[in-house]
Amino acid sequence: MVDFVLVTVVLVPLVLGVMQVALVMHVRNVSTAAASEGARAAAALDAPAGIAERRTREQIEAGVGDRFTRSVSVVAATVAGTPGVEVRVVSEVPALGLFGPGMTVEVSGHAVREVEP
Questions:
Q1: Does residue 98 register a pLDDT over 80?
Q2: Which of 28, 50, 79, 109 could form a disulfide with 35 if both were Cys (CB 3.0 to 4.6 A apart)?
Q3: Closest CA to 43 of 86, 106, 88
Q4: CB 52 within 8 A of CB 58
């Protein structure tokens, strides 16, 4: 009985910590891929206004749901010396995805704007 308690005291926090790291990494990876996809959509030649934010939010909602996303912003940027688009995503991941104080994850995606030939 004593051995079980001693092992559990060490093992449970370890498992919960690994689960938290996995959740944060999953949200970060999905947000990064969504930001890149949104930037590529906005960089197209005849892209409609607002497509970057809409596409980014769709991708995030399909991957992890929209409850983690705090904001999505789209700005004009310079990418390798050429005009481009930058999409920034700010997410908040609470402890084990449930409640309480969370960890802020900020990612961005870039794409070079297409120009007419």
A1: no
A2: 109
A3: 86
A4: no
Of 54, 51, 68, the C-alpha closest to 107 is 68
pLDDT in tens, 3-22: 899 999 999 989 988 988 89
Q: Which domain holds residue 38?
A: 2-112
Q: What is the pLDDT of residue 101?
A: 80
Q: What is the pLDDT of residue 62?
A: 95
Residue 37 within a domain:
yes
Domain count of the fold of the chain: 1
Asked whether residue 39 is assigned to any structural domain, the reply reads: yes
Residue 73 lies in a domain: yes
- Find all residues with CB under 8 Å of 91, minimum gap 6, and list them: 27, 28, 31, 68, 69, 70, 104, 105, 106, 107
Distance, C-alpha 92 to centroid of its chain: 9
Q: What is the pTM of this model?
A: 0.86
